[in-house]
Amino acid sequence: MSRQLVAWIQAAPMAVVMLAFLVAPIAMIVIVSFWGATEYSIYPAFQFDNYQFLFGSPVTYTVFLNTFKYAAITWAFTLVIGFTVAYFLAFEVRSLKWQIGLFLVCTIPFWTSNIIRMISWIPFLGRNGLANSTLISWGVIDEPLEWLLFSDFSVILAFVHLYTLFMVVPIFNSMMRIDRALIEAAYDNGASAWQTLWHVIVPLCKPGIMIGTIFVTTLVMGDFITVRFMSGSQRANVGRLISNDIGLLQYPSASATAVVLLCTVLIVIALLLRLVDIRKEL
Amino acid sequence: MSMQSDLELVSLTKRYGDALAVDAISHHFKAGVYACLLGPSGCGKSSTLRMIAGHESVSDGSIVLGGRDVSHLPPAKRGTAMMFQSYALFPHLSVRDNVAFSLRMAGVDKATRLKRADEMLALVEMQKYADRKPDQLSGGQQQRVALARALITRPQVLLLDEPLSALDPFLRIRMRSELKKLQRELGISFIHVTHGQDEALALADEIIVMNNAVIEQSGPAREVFNAPRTAFVARFMGGHNVLDLPQGKFALRSDEMVVTPAAAGKIDGRVSGIEYQGTHVALTATVAGEQDVTALIPEAQFFETPRDLGEVIGLGWDERAAHPLAS
Q1: Backbone φ and ψ of B286, nearest 5°
Q2: Is the Cβ of B90 closer than 8 Å to some Cβ of chain A?
Q3: DSSP letter string, A155-218
Q4: Which of A240, A174, A261, A236 is nearest to A211 (CA)?
């Protein structure tokens, strides 16, 4: 057998998996997005009605804007919290044993499903929930806060809770690769702790921050269940738009929205990758 | 000026828990000296250097630089600068920005600090590479950049932590002469930690041999090599035989040994090894008490009267070449 043939055979299983589970479904979505639909049926076609409707509706723009808003705010919070946690683990915790131990503690929430973690916020944040009753008993507030649950606040809280670890892990990884002599060298050159953080640690963590950013933005932009549960179906993002269409069996319309969302996310990632070269981190 | 930048260690001590890394050492470094802290790994030389630099806290005693106790000052306030073993250049900054880093931290404006950085790069002949990143440089070039970065703060004392150990042997010899030249030009003190005695002999005005957390011997390079005071120093400096004779312990330089016919020298021995080394032949003989003695004989002289393995020979030396050892 020629070497080339062997190489093809070796690559084949992965290629088949990718074709079957990644390329084919996406191709299917793209194809269906051009199909037509009536109230009770869908029919194969090649028409731009779905896209026309999508881009012609003001709802689309509001919902996309809302999705970006969720992504941006969640990103900002996960970045600050994630960086702080990673910094603590990488630089403040000295022994490897404690580092591993505390790292495992961070992953404990992942032992249950996303949905359960989300739902467990509801009794806490509700009108008569723990948070409100505690605040009332402390005398901080006189009547329950309405915005705690089923609001943008609760949606973003859940997002931050669910996705901060995706920021912690890559940043922690970047930090562990920083030669400790660099920190000493900065100190030797008269840098204060903040200057060292800003001029040495943050720049060297950029690839990790970027990978975390990609995780968080794609997860938030593609989400629909968190928004539905935590907003009590009162807020919308693109994921919910798609899920509603599917609920109404409007597959072509859902597909068109999915294609637009996919393109949007890809553009966001392409822009992020132009900012920082993450190849050396992989 | 010269009096002002003398560096003095006063019973400097470093403890890690119960372990004693540096045991109350005292030493006076004159301004403008090239001093080498020499010793095997774990002898406390690196801890000493890091305490002088301010990267390790002082457990006891003090460090006085230019008449000022700097023991508890942050590194940048001491008038010292450190060159790290792995150079510790910032990988995300260009060579110029690396050199200008300390000025940037001090808030010096951009034009001034870049001009100063270029001057320092000219000093180490690295102007051409100013815009490169550290990973695009060779080991020797990285070292020059690290030097420039350490020197831009105009330190009174430059501390070098095994600066040549990351280089290949050829480059090591070249960089070592450049270090010496730079030190002479700048006229500041260099304190250089190394475990290589050849490096220390080649560079140092003054050698401080450390072992087991204390200074075994210090003095001018020639004095330490020629007149070792302890068996440890004699062995560590190399080129010596430590002989345990009835009248006491002596250090004898291998190249001061004279090979004679049996019974004509001071002691007899049986040849146990002959090694051709180019300019010299190293002849090892086993003498009374199972001690190995090496005689370094000029090549031509050896081949005039070649010796064979197992042959009994006499070994002699000049009385003034035998240095009595303390232990």
Answers
A1: -95, 120
A2: yes
A3: HHHHHHHHHHHHHHHHHHHHHHTS-HHHHHHHHHTT--HHHHIIIIIHHHHHHHHHHHHHHHHH
A4: A174
| B244 and B222 housed in the same domain | no
Say which DSSP state B17 is in. T
Residue A263 resides in a domain: yes
Provide mean pLDDT across the span A67-73: 95
Total domains present in chain B: 2
The larger pLDDT score, comparing residue A109 to residue A35, is at: A35
Measured between beta carbons, the chain B residues lying within 8 angstroms of A189 are: 76, 101-102, 105, 149, 153
Residues B147 and B213 in one domain: yes
A282: pLDDT strictly greater than 60: no
Do B202 and B250 fall into the same domain? no
> What is the mean pLDDT of each successive set of 10 residues along chain B, which is 327 residues long?
74 91 92 93 92 92 91 91 92 94 93 93 91 91 93 92 88 89 91 92 93 93 91 90 85 88 85 91 88 90 87 88 81
Q: What percent of chain A has pLDDT over 70?
A: 98
pLDDT average, residue stretch A71-95? 94
Q: How many CB pairs under 8 A join A and B?
A: 60
- Position A96 scores a pLDDT of 87
Question: Does residue B22 sit in the same domain as residue B133?
Answer: yes
Q: What is the nearest CA distance from A187 to chain B, expressed in angstroms?
A: 7
Domain residue limits at B257? 239-324
User: What is the pLDDT, as a whole number, of residue A126?
Assistant: 83
Indicate the pTM of the whole model: 0.82
Chain A residues inside the 8 Å CB shell of B102? 189-191
End-to-end CA, chain B: 41
User: Are B45 and B193 members of one domain?
Assistant: yes
Check residue B2 and give its pLDDT.
42
Q: What's the pLDDT score for residue A236? A: 86
- The distance in angstroms from the start CA to the end CA of chain A is 33
Q: Is A27 exposed, middle or buried (0-12, 13-18, 19+ CB in 10 A)?
A: exposed
The residue among B276, B316, B325 whose CA lies nearest residue B300 is: B276
Residue A23 domain-assigned (yes or no): no
Any idea which residue has 């490096």 for tokens? B199
Mean pLDDT score, A184-200:
93
Indicate whether B234 belongs to any domain: no
CA B286 to the chain's CA centroid: 31
Number of H-type helices and E-type strands within chain B:
9, 18
If asked whether residues B139 and B202 sit together in one domain, one would say: yes
C-alpha distance from A210 to closest chain B C-alpha (Å): 16
Chain B's closest residue to A185, CA to CA, is B88
Label the pairing between strands A36-37 and B80-83. unpaired
Whether residues B204 and B272 share a domain: the answer is no
Task: Give me the domain span that covers residue A150.
Answer: 33-281
Complex confidence, ipTM = 0.81
Q: Does residue A16 sit within a domain?
A: no
pLDDT per position as a tens digit, A172-182? 999 999 999 99
Q: The CATH number of the domain where B273 resides is what?
A: 2.40.50.140
